[in-house]
Specification:
This protein has a single domain, classed as Lipocalin (Beta Barrel). 0% of the residues lie in helices and 68% in strands. It has a 10-stranded antiparallel β-barrel with strand order 1-2-3-4-5-6-7-8-9-10. The protein is elongated, with a radius of gyration of 18 Å. This is Outer membrane beta-barrel protein.
Amino acid sequence: MKFKSKLAISIVAAIAASTSAFADDHSQNGPKWDLIEVGYVEADIDDFDSSPSGFSGAFSKSLGKGFYLTGRYRDVSEDVVAFGQSVELDVSQLSLGAGYSLHVTDTTDVYGQITYENLELGASGAGGSDSEDENGFGAEIGVRSMLTEKFELGAKIGYLDVADESETTFGASAYYYVTDSLAIGATYEMWEDVDFMGLNLRYAF
């Protein structure tokens, strides 16, 4: 099994200096940075008749002065028939890193982050199995904005590098806060030959 999409990097330089127009701390009306998420995720793999699905989890923890820690894990799998045999495909991704965010208005933050990346691809069936476990790094820049007190939109662009293979990624998200702390949301992330769609439950604290 060959899976071209790996992971990669593109670091943020545009947020290095803050001016008097930008404050260092997050605005109370802006996006929340202390949060945990769990959800359902589905992958759509180009040139491969497969749409594995599974679960995801993520967290973000602010450290003060705009700095934060971040992490994400997702795992998708599916049983397919190949050469007359039933085979289980499995793809998992772990991201751990840190970033910096800056609110440019009372309701909008821009951010940049760098992450350690681990990508594991596996196939098992017919009494045999094979897997590939690769490490690398990544970075992304993005924007998160509270359009209203309850509705948040986000967009990001990233560059991932794993096993000497790199690519640019794009993503978007939308969350609706049912309460001050609880939100439901949808995410979309596009790699070169695979798309990830997610439905998440978020708790902000």
